[in-house]
Protein 1
Amino acid sequence: MLPAFEWKGEYLLLLDQRLLPWEEKYLELKTLEEVAISIEKMMVRGAPAIGCVAAYGVVLAMKEGKGLEEAIARLSRTRPTAVNLFWALERMRRAAVNIEEAEKEAINIEREDYQANVKMGELGSELIPEAVNVLTHCNAGAIATSGYGTAVGVIRKAWEKGRVKRVYVDETRPYLQGARLTTWEFLKLGIPTTLITDNMAGFFISKGEIGAIVVGADRIAANGDVANKIGTFTLSVLAKEYDIPFFVAAPTSTLDLSISSGAEIPIEERSKDEVLYINGRNIAPLNVDVRHPAFDVSPAENITAIITEKGIAYPPYGESLRKIMEGR
Ligand code: MRU
């Protein structure tokens, strides 16, 4: 699998995810501003990958002679929902006493994230029922992380164990992370993959074709409410209605126990153009009003389990997530 990013010491090599699946092109990022723009413009995306790349952005800023706080402030303004960004910047704030220490910490953040992904794959794959089709939404794969993937990691491990027959991938309007990125990853992994549009999920679930849903997360509140890509909430309601297990896979860097519920999670509103245009062509009258919330919140009561690298949390999440964070 191609990595989303690779630290080269003097610069950060970054896969431009906007070009996938058409072109596999890497950019060389050398400055704080280039890294900030790469996150804003979604050349890199996915909560853990954003955190890792931001950490390297701090290192590049220090190499440019910029102040730590200036770097953290600029990177904090890029995207508001994924808490991994703020978690990584906080770690950098504590560790970056000089360039060497900053670089070490960014590398640690990346390594720990990779290990967390592999661990979640091992733990989570055991939850997948035998011989089912699994549905996923958005891209929570290797390129959304430092490698391997969260939801995709669970599915690929379950596939290796013979539990998964086929993966159904929501296209994930409007940014098409499912169609462009997740199908690209699953096909590279050799896993049978079916692409569906978001509004087909209910049809296949009602026909009994889906045995489990696995998604990633951008921020998880103390009560277990989960913010993830827009459309995830709808899937969680369908899962509850049809009694299908609904799993969330996320490293503990995605937990935000400082907020009590999903109502406090800031939801990014992105440009209306991402809804209005596909491949440079408008698909609706240009003078129509458009809204574009990029995330929604699935309530804790719709979630069967939250898979982290430190263990699996079950309801009531207020208690189980706290225990996981305290290492109990
Ligand atoms: O807007 P994006 O593409 O950054 O949103 C990504 C998601 O919502 C993912 O599901 C989430 O970050 C988990 S990635 C392992």
Note: The first helix runs from residue 32 to 40.
Protein 2
Amino acid sequence: MNETLDKQIITDSSLVKELNPIAEKVKAGERITDEEGLLLFEKGSLSFLGSLANYVREKLHGDTTYFNRNFHIEPTNVCVFSCNFCSYSRLYAHRDEGWELSMEQMMDMVKKYDGKPITEVHIVGGVHPKMNLEFFAELLRKIKSHRPGLHIKGFTAVELDYMFRKAKLANDEGLKLLHDAGLDSLPGGGAEIFHPEIREKICADKVDADGWLKIHEAAHRLGMHTNATMLYGHIEKYWHRIDHMKRLRELQDKTRGFNTFIPLKFRNKDNDMSHVPEVSLVEDMKMYAVARIYLDNFPHMKAYWPMLGRQNAQLSLAFGVNDIDGTIDDSTKIYSMAGAEEQNPSMNTAQLVTLIQQAKRKPVERDTLYNVIRDYSGMDIKEIEMNPLLN
Ligand code: V47
Ligand code: SF4
């Protein structure tokens, strides 16, 4: 199989001469430089990038494509910050237009899944001035005491930075407190674009790049795994994307604590950046491919299907992606409010398996930390649909 791929890379008609050495490097398992990453964005054809990213993906994971069974809790969309790309948040003064879930309402959401084979809850929301560290520690304790086996992936570095500063705790103290209360890992949100030239224009008032990275580093030191995102396709240039990934690659060299990189496509409905056009599907696929090639120390690359749409997520499996997130169960509003095609994102196991099989990949259910729960290859879709333990 690798021989065929080799040929494909070398004889691809769109291959520009100066890109050949990059392909050779990648095939030799060598790391590419920032300049080479930039060249890929600027000059790489879709077919060239796809072949190379797919080579890396198959070397790491073969055809395996992961998904999980999860749901989200978004405690509030009231937020002290005003990110210009955000379609979701409401300022505290306008909180009557938003939502603020009580502890009881959030526990009811968890209890709704009693007896259902869900493995992860993803908790992320606005930064509410009155929902503090103790409130969330109590929520974590309550969830764990109700369902000890449920993995809690919660709170972006933006939410954590605010909570810890208010509680006058250092990052490691705050994280230890939440970890002891039941927090298992951190999602990758809040990273946006690290470079100050862009960050100051799109989300000036929240934690900066160093603050975001320090929180993830502290989490890694405590033995927690985390994800990383990048909000792309707005006013940033390619080199800002490389700068962003460079900072992540450097931290990963130090800690090895990141699991997954998730590029998030900017959606422009109903926000202060609505005048900025959204990028094309070709740009999306290039983004995944270059990320897969550049971030050689990240084990996984995720296409978050509620944001990208189902068919585009299928396509991304040929551009370096090996994970499409989970069932979601219509429990998040961040992307639907920003104009994503998926207005009520929800897929059952049979639908996720079908999606992956249609792309001729191997569907594997994972837990949050990529332990295999079940390999669905060869399983009949009808059998999955009929089995209550699998849906
Ligand atoms: O940080 C907000 C993004 C993120 C828009 O770790 C937008 O598994 C596009 O962190 N257009 C939060 N993106 C979501 C997040 C996440 C999502 C899925 C999986 C994981 C994971 C983490 O949502 C924010 C921001 O970058 N976002 N508004 C918008 N208009
Ligand atoms: Fe608040 Fe997050 Fe929206 Fe920024 S992206 S305004 S931090 S909810």
Note: The chain has two domains: 2-61, 66-386.
